[in-house]
Write a structure and sequence with these properties.
Elements (H helix, E strand, L loop, with lengths): L3 H13 L2 H8 L3 H15 L4 E4 L2 E4 L1 H26 L6 E7 L1 H18 L3 E7 L2 H10 L4 E7 L10 E10 L1 E5 L10 E2 L7 E4 L5 H12 L5 E5 L3 H9 L5 E3 L11 E7 L3 E9 L5 H17 L1
Parallel strand pairs: 3-4, 3-5, 8-12, 9-10
Antiparallel strand pairs: 1-2, 5-13, 6-13, 7-11, 7-12
Helix pairs in contact: 1-2, 1-3, 1-4, 2-3, 5-9
Length: 299
Amino acid sequence: MFGVERLRALEAVHRLGSVARAAAELHVTPSGVSQQLARLERESGHRLTAPQGRGLRLTQAGLVLAAHATRVLRELAAARADLADLHAEILGPVRIGSVESAIRALVAPALAALGARHPRLSPLLHAGEAVATMPRLHAGDLDVVVAESWNHWPTSFPADVSHTRLLDEHASVAVSTRHPLAGRATVDLAELAGTPWTACTPGTGAHDSLVQALRTVGVEPDVTCIAAEYPTQLALVRANVAAALVPPLGLAEPLDGIALIPTRPVVSREIVAAWRTSGDRPATRACVDALREVATARL
């Protein structure tokens, strides 16, 4: 039988890449982590680590057992959360980070539902892209993150973060009604060579997905206007300054002067709710459940 604390030590070393960082996270000494790994090797009958420079790496057996350890620890955290739900009142702060375009249609209604069901819950909302909110989630500064994951630039989630898909949506190219392609039913991305673009900040999923989607069809993107919010991008589109790639949740009325054209190939994104597996407490679950309900009602 493998001890839970020994599995926890192995999982931390695998995820963080060193004994020292694992020890700091687990609040033990590096020698304590090494002792847990040595005991786990004796229990498993396999060598789990091997020297690598000044540190160590996991052997094939270590990688196999670390993958199982991740699943075991996730299930144990879920079991603790289920038991806590039996008696816990849902109250106190729940800190939410969300991509801007999901706030109006998903997060705002979910916050309203949470307030009605759990009046002693205190939601705190921070708008931001996944590149900013995911590190804060991992560090424990946020409890739930609503992020986007594009098909051309998917968001990666650490092993200690659980996530669930809320909805999928296909983006359209937005151009001025004065643009030569404005009357088209669909448009090949390759036809947009030479078109100036407006996009979110470089490093965000929306920006990097646009760049990757265009490069996939042999077009080098010409992003001339950086604007973090879709309403600003659409104002630039309406003025015939640039084109934009806009998902449905990013659209705001009115859309006069703007043509929305589906693309070939399809550019799509998922809206995802993510939370730390170890932070799966009743308030977090209530928030994720409310987000799921709002998203399901939109289908």
